[in-house]
């Protein structure tokens, strides 16, 4: 009976075969689409982490600067509005050549608002902007006393249904804020100004003062 010899691996041969098998598997894996996907995801993750680490302090700094800018802008606007606290704008007064604007205001207040004021209560009055042949320009008035200005403001409701309007002398920023509130009034019942402040009454009859555009979303007004 023939004797069958069994092949036995020596340790060095076994290690060599295992190394070759592993290298072959690795080579095939590296060439596979799975490896490319894993590699791409790993690279993207590293890039994203690096970008986040690098930009996080910058984002926080930008947010802080934006907050500070909002505060500065709001304060500057409030200061400018305060400087106009004695002013009113009158719309609808017919413009004439060589007119005495101060006297025209005194007469208007007497006839339309039934208030007696004298010329000495007015610091100055003049038309706004370049002259227009097709219509009368608004007239801006600066009173010497806040009391006089406030008394006239209280009577401006008497002008309802007429061609005349009396508005506060708002800053450009507040004009845009007021206009925005009137045009985007989904949750707003009414909007008005008092001493240059933009006041809004919401659907729940709560009165809210708007300082800037963000307030409309903050207080769920739009």
From TrEMBL:
Domain FP protein C-terminal: 171-215
Chain segments annotated as transmembrane: none
Pfam families: Baculo_FP_2nd (PF25298)
InterPro entries named in the record: FP_C, Transposase_22
Name of the molecule in the record: FP protein C-terminal domain-containing protein
Source organism of the structure: Paramuricea clavata (Red gorgonian)
Species lineage: Eukaryota, Metazoa, Cnidaria, Anthozoa, Octocorallia
């Amino acid at each position: 009976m023939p004797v069958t010899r069994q092949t036995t691996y020596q340790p060095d041969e076994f290690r060599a075969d295992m190394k070759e098998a592993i290298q072959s598997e690795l080579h095939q894996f590296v060439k596979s689409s799975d490896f490319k996907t894993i590699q791409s995801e790993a690279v993207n993750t590293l890039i994203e982490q690096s970008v986040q680490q690098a930009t996080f302090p910058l984002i926080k700094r930008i947010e802080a600067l934006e907050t500070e800018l909002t505060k500065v802008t709001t304060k500057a606007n409030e200061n400018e509005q305060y400087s106009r606290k004695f002013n009113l704008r009158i719309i609808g007064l017919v413009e004439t050549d060589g007119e005495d604007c101060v006297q025209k205001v005194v007469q208007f207040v007497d006839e339309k608002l039934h208030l007696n004021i004298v010329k000495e209560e007015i610091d100055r009055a003049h038309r706004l902007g370049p002259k227009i042949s097709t219509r009368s320009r608004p007239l801006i008035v600066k009173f010497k006393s806040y009391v006089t200005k406030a008394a006239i403001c209280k009577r401006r409701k008497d002008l309802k249904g007429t061609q005349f309007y009396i508005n506060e002398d708002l800053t450009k920023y507040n004009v845009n804020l007021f206009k925005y509130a009137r045009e985007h009034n989904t949750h707003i019942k009414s909007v008005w100004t008092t001493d240059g402040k933009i006041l809004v009454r919401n659907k729940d009859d709560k009165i809210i003062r708007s300082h800037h555009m963000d307030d409309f979303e903050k207080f769920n007004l739009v």
